[in-house]
Prior knowledge:
CATH topology of the largest domain: Rossmann fold
Shape: elongated
Radius of gyration: 21 Å
Strand order of the largest sheet: 3-2-1-4-5-6-7-8
CATH class of the largest domain: Alpha Beta
Amino acid sequence: MGLTTLGVIGGTGWLGGALLRPALARGFIAPTDLILSSRSGRTAGFEAWPHIRFTTDNRSLAAQSDIVILSVRPEDIDALELDLSGKLVMSVMARLPAAALRNRFKSGRIIRAMPNACAEQGLSFTPWHATDETTAADAEFADGFFACSGKTAKLSTESELDYFTALTGSGPAFIAAFADVMVRNAIAHGVAPDIADTAVRQLFLGAGTWMADAPETPADTVRIFTDYGGTTAAGLTAMFSADIAGPIGKGLAAAEKAVKG
């Protein structure tokens, strides 16, 4: 698409950095094509790419950029008074719909995405949606950029992003909550805390790898172990009898409600 400069507002924050470092490491973005802004103008986390430009002036960034990525907290958006007309605007912020971004920044070329905290490890799932005004080249750039950080999916409707913010935008947090319950249970049964922690981390690493690589769906895996019988089946049966799905569904619903305000 003839990219000259990619500007990232909030680019030195945790999410901006988690997305940019994989893209830089893979060569998808050249350091000379990148300008990052933050309140401090700090460069921490980007020492490997000395040719990146840094600024505290968002207007200067906007003037120099063909594409602008917004990676700030939603509550900080009111501080951004920018005219981004004619530019591709990519937002990784929750809660702010494309219509609000269009009105504020004067651009119809809006792509909204919801990566998660696993982006830096290349393990994010990033769903994204593009407005009708975006071009095929815009979509190709966005998908390629987010693919540097994991798997992507183009959504047909923007409203789906609200649910995905709850489902996958939480990153490891919901899974970590389940893991913490297992660690605490192990400690309560006399397992040394460090061993309990290592055991559960390895369990989730192995289980995640299994589900990522196996042809079976998660439901298939549960059925296989349940049909086999034994200790795993006994544990699964007890969990289902206690309605394990209920609290999980309530958690997802609460997160989605928070997105919608």
